[in-house]
């Protein structure tokens, strides 16, 4: 486990990744190449609902700076520059999406052995500011997050969370949506490489008295193949098969069914990622 409690966004992330990551409902092809100068190029084509789109992304790393540039089919250019250790134990991230000059953001992260802090500010005349803080250890962490809109002088969000992490398990409780929802999750790993795991998550929304309970997991069939599945109390069943055809080249087949409405057409997704 890493030193320090991690960022507030890390609380509950392991369960969220197991229940959402790689589950897709479209067709996606991604091809990556690397040049001798250290530039990584990734081309992605996506077909969803009869519509096609795509983007080209480039990544370049030099000393303690990492530059990411992405251009999509609508000629939007997204640029992110990440600097590490400009000041010891910090990471600074600047991003902008052109031609929307008001989309610029500046984020500063600070890491300590027993705490972490994050400040994000929009680069505009009336910026929105997000603040988060986490204290604890790699085993136990408690944190909070708040968003403030300077134009109206109001809090746009406030969230609190707590997590307990062990080598073979992770549990978290998050109070979010300005206190309207509470989400508890638990992940248990079944092997040392953490490729096979079981996860459970329950979410309650107080304003509607609605509960959502989801169970799922992943299983490593062999060194090249992983199977994942999830099911919630509303009858939504998701499953996927991920196979490494060659080193760093992965094929993912995903599907989603509504077990309470079997007459509806299931949703299927296909993704192929090719890396040298």
From TrEMBL:
Task performed by this protein: Forms a channel through the cell membrane that allows diffusion of small hydrophilic molecules. The channel adopts an open conformation at low or zero membrane potential and a closed conformation at potentials above 30-40 mV. The open state has a weak anion selectivity whereas the closed state is cation-selective.
Instruction: Indicate where this protein is primarily found.
Output: membrane
Q: Is-annotated flag, keyword Membrane?
A: yes
Q: Does the keyword Cell inner membrane apply?
A: no
The family classification in the record reads:
Belongs to the eukaryotic mitochondrial porin (TC 1.B.8.1) family.
> What is the protein named?
Voltage-dependent anion-selective channel protein
Q: Which UniProt keywords apply?
A: Ion transport, Membrane, Porin, Transmembrane, Transmembrane beta strand, Transport
Q: Which organism is it from?
A: Escallonia rubra
Q: Where in the cell is it found?
A: Membrane
Any single Gene Ontology cellular-component annotation: pore complex
Task: List the GO molecular function terms.
Answer: porin activity; voltage-gated monoatomic anion channel activity
């Amino acid at each position: 486990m890493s030193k320090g409690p991690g960022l507030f966004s890390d609380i509950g992330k392991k369960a969220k990744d197991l229940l959402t990551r790689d589950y897709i409902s479209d067709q996606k092809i991604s091809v990556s190449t690397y040049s001798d100068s250290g530039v990584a190029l990734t081309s992605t084509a996506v077909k969803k609902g009869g519509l096609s789109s795509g983007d080209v992304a480039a990544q370049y790393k030099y000393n303690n700076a990492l530059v990411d540039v992405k251009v999509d089919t609508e000629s939007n250019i997204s640029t992110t520059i990440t600097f590490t250790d400009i000041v010891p134990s910090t990471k600074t991230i600047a991003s902008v999406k052109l031609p929307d000059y008001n989309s610029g953001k500046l984020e500063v992260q600070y890491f300590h052995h027993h705490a972490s802090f994050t400040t994000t500010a929009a680069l505009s005349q009336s910026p929105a500011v997000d603040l988060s803080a986490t204290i604890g250890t790699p085993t136990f962490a408690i944190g909070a997050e708040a968003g403030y809109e300077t134009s109206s002088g109001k809090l746009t969000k406030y969230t609190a969370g707590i997590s307990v992490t062990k080598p073979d398990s992770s549990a978290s409780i998050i109070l979010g949506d300005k206190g309207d929802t509470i989400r508890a999750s638990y992940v248990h790993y079944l092997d040392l490489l953490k490729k096979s795991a079981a996860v459970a998550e329950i979410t309650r929304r107080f304003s509607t008295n609605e509960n959502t309970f989801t169970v799922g997991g992943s299983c490593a069939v062999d060194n090249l193949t992983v199977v994942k599945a999830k099911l919630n109390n509303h009858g939504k069943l998701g499953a996927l098969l991920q196979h490494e055809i060659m080193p760093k080249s992965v094929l993912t087949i995903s599907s989603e069914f509504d077990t309470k409405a079997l007459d509806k057409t299931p949703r299927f997704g296909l993704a192929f990622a090719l890396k040298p």
